[in-house]
Amino acid sequence: MGKRLTIVVALAGLLVLVSGTGGAGGAGSTAGASARAVAIRVVVPGQSGAEAGSISSPPYRVAFGSSFAYPADGSAVTTGPLNASASSDSGTSGTAAATSEVQSLSVFGGEISAASVKGAARGSTRGRSAGGDFSGATISGLTVLGSAASVAPNGRVGLADWGYLVTLEQGTDASSGAGGTQGFHGFVAALSIHLTAPHGGLPAGSEIQVGYAEASVQASVAAAPKPIVPGPAKKPQRQPGTRSATKTPVAPEPTGRSQSSSPPLRSAFGLQPELTAGGYVFPVYGPSSFSDTYGAFRGDVAGNWHHGDDIFAPLGAPLLACADGIVFSVGWNDVGGNRFWLRDEEGNEFYYAHLSAFTPLAKNGRHVKAGEMLGFVGNSGDAQGTPTHVHFEVHPYSLLFMGYDGAVNPTPYLQAWKHLQDVRFTNVADWLATTGISDPAPRPAAILLQVSDISEASGLDPGSLQRAMSARPSRTTEGQVGAALDLRPPRARRP
Predict the structure, then answer these.
(1) CB distance 183 to 17 below 8 Å
(2) pLDDT tens, residue by residue, 61-112
(3) CB 371 within 8 A of CB 482
(4) What is the spatial distance between Cα 170 and Cα 185, in angstroms, rounded to a whole number?
(5) Are 209 and 40 spatial neighbours (Cβ–Cβ below 8 Å)?
(6) Are 394 and 413 in contact (CB under 8 A)?
(7) What beta strand segments (E) does 219-369 contain?
(8) Cβ distance 360 to 462 under 8 Å?
(9) Residue range 214-226: average pLDDT?
């Protein structure tokens, strides 16, 4: 939605520019130029949204602001100081420049943050030629879901199961005018965040655009030379032995160019990248079962196919961190119910869904060790009414550019982890016994849905969970449930 809005604004600006600079008769014209900048814009389907630092030129304009928040409580976006400027000059040559900058950006409570985000676009003409660039557009200190993110033109970063962002999103369009003159139009959005599912209080289809800048220029048309009145026409003389020449018709050149979008990304079927972050742990403790259901049809959810495997276990069975890493996106999703993501130290990501509850360790940005308990098996979300299980996905770092469809078949990994876990974890059993809890899951009537961290909900007993966690033995190899073992699939092990 946001990109379509950008294109409409861009084309509108270009039409105004061209209509104001077209050649009239033989009198010639001056060059045309315009610029536009928006420091930050929030587009929400069916709602008014908000923006700050929105200006255009001519004339020369600047805008400043001390901060921005949306909504009023800042739950979706907050910023520090922001500014924007737009300038343009028309004459025998044309120049246009736009800049916008936002400092101390925080989105969804810090899930996405940046020290500064700056958009910059400029265009200029020289004679009949026109051009431009976005060399001043930058992002510094970009952090996405707890990890530093790289910045590249039109770079795409997946946001778990709820969206994606694009860094330095940009596009250009060249045009031709009267007398063969050139025009340039270009825009850059330093950071664009797109929601494909509801998140952080915003609906699917929402877009947050930061650091937008646009520049348009059109070269001038030179005055036509004074016509020379010809004398009496003379019939051309044909040389003996030659034929009269006949001109071949020439088709007119097209004035525009076709726009083609990139082909859709294909799913990662058949790929099995190695995972090399260290010892991996089977994600469910105790009796469980699973089969290879990756790729199975799943109606109109999750892209119509099953992105992982379902591991069936009793209600309340402990869910373990499968690797050392960072927990993020802890909370509720209409499809996954209570869910969280875990990123290991190599950047691979793992998705757990349909939990009955979280433990106090399931906190956004929390560093955890393989084998630590993060939640309990359940059937929340669209799994209500089915046997209790956890939906588990594997998203290798090398395929994150594909977004949510970068998930690979988790079965070989789970089989390797399961087989290497065939030892007795007496420490974990003793730990459960010390809590006096035979069933660590909350009673069904106590499960609260749609809260950001269910472990803090008043309907549960956080004290018992805290006592259970504090009674955990010291972090030995055995107490970490095999965290020091090399549990990669056999072909993924190093020599």
Answers:
(1) yes
(2) 888 899 999 999 999 999 999 999 998 888 778 889 999 999 999 999 999 9
(3) yes
(4) 11
(5) yes
(6) yes
(7) 289-290, 309-312, 318-320, 325-333, 337-344, 349-358, 367-368
(8) yes
(9) 73
